[in-house]
Design brief:
Layout: H1 11-17, H2 38-71, H3 87-152, H4 154-161, H5 166-187, H6 199-236, H7 240-276, H8 278-290, H9 294-302, H10 312-336, H11 344-368, H12 370-374
Helix pairs in contact: 1-7, 2-7, 3-4, 3-5, 3-6, 3-11, 4-5, 4-11, 5-10, 6-7, 8-9, 10-11
Length: 376
Amino acid sequence: MGAPPGYRPSAWVHLLHQLPRADFQLRPVPSGFAPQEQEYQQALLLVAALAGLGLGLSLIFIAVYLIRFCCCRPPEAPGTKSPPPGGGCVTWSCIAALLVGCAGIGIGFYGNSETSDGVSQLSSALLHANHTLSAIDHLVLEMVERLGEAVRTELTTLEEVLTQRTELVAATRGARRQAEAVAQQLQGLAFWRDVPLSPLQVAEDVSFVEEYRWLAYILLLLLELLVCLFTLLGLAKQSKWLVVVMTVMSLLVLILSWGSMGLEAATAVGLSDFCSSPDTYVLNLTQEETGLGSDILSYYFLCNQAVSNPFQQRLTLSQRALANIHSQLQGLEREAVPQFPSAQKPLLSLEETMNVTEGNFHQLVALLHCRGLHKG
C-alpha cells in the first residue's frame, strides 16, 4: 500500500529530489512526481539526454586521441628503429581504465541486486495486500451466507415450533431482524469486491518486467566484464588482433553503457520524486483506478490516528447486533426448551452458527485495521 507509518526518504532520495529540472525550453519544472505531465516527461528525457552528451564527448575524446596517436607522430630518421612513442603510457592507461571499468562493473552487480531486492519487496507487499483484501471478502461472504442460511432454516423452523407462544415468536422475529441487519452491515465491509484493480495482477506485471530487466542488465555487465578480461589478456600476451577486436567491442559496450546510464539516471530521478512523497500520488492514482472514497483510501494509506476507520460505525453496529442475537437465543433456550423440546435442535444450531460468526467477525475486525495491510 502506501508509505509505512514513520516513513522517511533516504539521503539519496532527498539529494536527487533537490536537483533542478528543466524542460526542452530550459524552463524550470517542479520536482513533484507527475509522470502524466508533458513538462515533467521532458525534464526526465533531458536528464537521460545528458548521458548522450557524455557518450558524444567520450567518442570525440577517443577520436582526437587516436588521430593524434596515429597521424601526428614525429618524423623518424632513416634507418632508425624506435618503439612507438607513448607505447608504455598507452598500455598503462588502458590497464588503469580497465581496472576502473571492472570496479564499475562490480558496483553495477551490487546495484542490480539491490534493485531486484527492492522490487521483490514491492511484489511481496502487493501479494500481502491481495491476500488481506481477499481474506476480507471471503470472511464477509462466509458470514453473510451463514446468517442468511440461519434466517431461512433455523429461525423459520423456530418460529413454526413456537407458534403457540406469541412472545417467543416475537423474540425469534427480533433475532431474525437483527441477523438480517448484521448481514446488510457486513456486505458494506467488502469494499474491494467490485474494484477492477487487482494487486495480484500488478505484482505479476512488476515481477515480469523486473525479471527481464534484471536479465538484460546482467548480460550487459557480463559483456562488459568479458571485454575487460579479453583486453587485459590481449595486452598481457601482446596480441594485437585481440586488442583490436576488444577495442571495437569496447565501442559497442561504451554505447550500451551510456545508454543504460541515461535510462537509469532518468529512472533514479523519477523514483526519487516519487519516494519523497509517495502517498499523495498513490492515493490519487488508486482513487482514479478504483473509484473508492477518499476516506477509505486515506485511512489505509496514511494509517495514523488523525484518520479514523471509515468502517467503525458498521463494525460497532454489527457487534452490538451479534451480542443482542446471542442474548436473545439464550433467553429462548431458557424459556422455550422446557415447553417445546423440539426447539432445542434449531437453537443449538443457531448458537453454533453465531459462535462461528463471532469468531470470524473478530478476525475481520483485525483485517480491516490499516496495520493489517502495512505489515507486508
